[in-house]
Amino acid sequence: MSNELPITISPPSPSPTTPATIIFLHGLGDDANGWTGSSISPSSLHNQTNADASIPTDLVSQLHSASKLPRIKWSLPNAPQNRDAMAQAWYIPKPFSPIPMPKRTGEAESEDDDSEDDEEGMMKSVDYICSLIDKEMKQGVPLERIIVGGFSQGCAIALLVGLLSRFMGRLGGVVGLSGYLPLAKKAEEARQKIEEQGKHSTKWFLTHGSRDQLVPRRVFTRYRDKLRNWEGELVEAHLYEGMGHSSTGAEIRDLCHWVETVLPDR
């Protein structure tokens, strides 16, 4: 995986008794610096009518400027340079058709076909994120106080960490922004094991834009409905009208509120 160490941002007001960490993954062609360094103003995080429409290139520092989530540590890993994708990537991506293709009777939806997914690359990324979780736990952060999230391709890996890793069902939460669920059949099989073992306390926060042209809306609604079927009330999902493959102040406000419920101060 990546030879670069994750960017770590310490909390401005750390809790001496209940540490918490968010591990957040960037999207295809981006890097961790894109989420640390400004497009959403602090005022928009409080203004319920403001709807910024650009990707938050300085998400964490903007949150801290608005006195949001001050007790949470952020770990922002970098994906490796992928020769096939010709960019920093967590795995080799597959394209989505903007127009659903007709299928024959009994044929699986192509977007749900696991054979088209780069399973090897995805699971390498999942293992890498699990190693970061291990490090946080060794530093005293309880597993239930760790959230894994991501944007776009990072969303896909975050979902797999929550559904297919050795930590499945036990993380504090999983955040998926403007992404999709790959390896859906394998995830469903694993989910059945979680149900049998009674291990599913993870909470889920899923969002998408109605005008996303990279990951079609139908892809989001399909995996959202699957997760709701599997996890029920543990899933919180939002579809933002007019938002493209980006973020808005409303989305970040909703995310902050959700994180505050999953990782409350004690």
Helix run count: 6
SS elements, strand count:
9
- How much of the polypeptide forms β-strand, as a percent range? 15-25%
Helical content class: 25-40%
Main sheet: which strands, in order across?
Answer: 1-3-2-6-7-8-9
The gyration radius over C-alpha positions equals 18 Å
Detail the poorly predicted runs.
Answer: 37-57
Task: Throw out a few tags for this protein.
266 residues; alpha/beta; seven-stranded mixed beta sheet; two-stranded antiparallel sheet; 6 helices
Question: What would you say this structure looks like, in words?
Answer:
The chain has six helices and nine strands. With 266 residues, it is of the alpha/beta class. It has a seven-stranded mixed beta sheet with strand order 1-3-2-6-7-8-9, with helices on both faces. Strands 4-5 form a two-stranded antiparallel ribbon.
Indicate the topology.
Blueprint: E1 7-9, E2 21-25, H1 59-65, E3 73-76, E4 81-82, E5 87-88, H2 119-138, E6 146-151, H3 153-164, E7 173-177, H4 184-197, E8 203-209, H5 217-231, E9 235-240, H6 249-262
Parallel strand pairs: 2-3, 2-6, 6-7, 7-8, 8-9
Antiparallel strand pairs: 1-3, 4-5
Helix pairs in contact: 2-3
